[in-house]
């Protein structure tokens, strides 16, 4: 899993996390010229709203394409607090200016809408070509349409005695979190007007209220309350009404934002305690399962399960193959034909833009890997001893006619158990081959989440891993793809 966290220390953190062990695999810091107030993720883009720095400079927006790291920047000294992005528009809210900036992504045209005496905190999309803006000062939610180069008011919700901060749409209903009371106002549309059908207070009825964020997933709504350092959870009933469900300790001070990882697991940014908390909860209690130290985290977005591509390559032809030997752990060299095969497979994999190449320590695999690595980002081949072929024991390196003569029952036993190796004197157990291959490849994946990795190994060893990957018994190995010399198979792992 990959997370981006905006820090009020003029940083954006990029974290790669193993969510099984809650361990940071990699962390990068992207330095900014001013303070990021909000992040929004759209497909392969991260959009950043920037407030002005101490010198009143570099306020505006920044959009980064995560595929090529190219960025689009626009600075106008108007101090933006919130940003939204889709395939057509970038929309940003300027709190102090009471203004919305709209950028047409196709034409790059920019236009503004000013709200009289307004302080626009939050913007977003309700449905196709219908956007919203939350005005804290005037206590109004505006619904706006884009017509040409203008934002036209389509509808509004006027709110009394509450300062609206954020809203979400769920099941056709509008849920607004109020900053000073932490109440949630619930609206539905009837005859083109929005009618309030419920107002609900914070779960623990705290007197110290200051709401920061509202999110929703499954049939629940989650809000952060900076006043009492809690996360309030509400259940959405079939008619849209909210029911108080749970109040959760945020694991820090001044919770600003959160993401819902699972139904019972959330990740919260705590600005004043400089930490990111992973919280697991149920009705019996709350458990903080991990806390990451970060400087002043305020906003968080998540790239869902990341894809890691694994390319398993069987080594090119070696002397043991042409001599009809059980190659096993015997260190045979490549044949002349095998060396040609390495160039062909390397050329075929060239367009994959492989990040790293791992290999068994045996020469036939290592020589194949070295050719492939010429086109990889990292040229050095990483040798992993546990990627080695099965050890055939006393039969290792022998020709089949020698085995038939010396150990006449071996071939018979092999065929009887559906063609996976067994019954040779002092042979490595096939299940042990599978265990070491699975352990090693999973370790490689954990180190390289989101990357393209090439692993060069051997026929039986690869087959053992594929049994695990495709949830087959080892007795079913022969039903899976059989890689010939210098052939490969691509697997996608999501973590």
Question: Going across the major beta sheet, what is the strand order?
Answer: 31-30-32-29-33
* Rg over C-alpha atoms, rounded to the nearest angstrom: 29 Å
Q: What is the end-to-end distance?
A: 6 Å
Helix content: 10-25%
Largest sheet: 5 strands, mixed
Number of helices: 7
Shape: elongated
Integer average pLDDT: 90
Secondary-structure content class: mainly beta
Secondary structure: number of strands: 33
List keywords for this structure.
mainly beta; four-stranded antiparallel β-sheet; elongated; 495 residues; 33 strands
Plain-language structure description:
This protein has 495 residues and is mainly β. The protein has 7 helices and 33 strands. It has helices spanning 319-322, 336-349, 363-373, 400-406, 410-416, 430-447, 459-469; strands spanning 2-7, 11-18, 23-31, 35-42, 45-51, 60-65, 71-75, 80-85, 89-94, 99-104, 110-114, 120-127, 130-135, 140-147, 150-158, 164-170, 173-178, 184-190, 193-200, 211-217, 220-225, 230-236, 242-249, 255-262, 265-270, 275-282, 285-293, 297-303, 307-314, 356-359, 381-383, 452-457, 488-494. The chain has a 5-stranded mixed sheet with strand order 31-30-32-29-33. A 4-stranded antiparallel sheet has the order 3-2-1-28, with no helix packed on it. Helix 2 (336-349) runs parallel beside helix 3 (363-373) and helix 6 (430-447) packs across helix 7. The chain starts with a strand and ends with a strand. The mean pLDDT is 90.
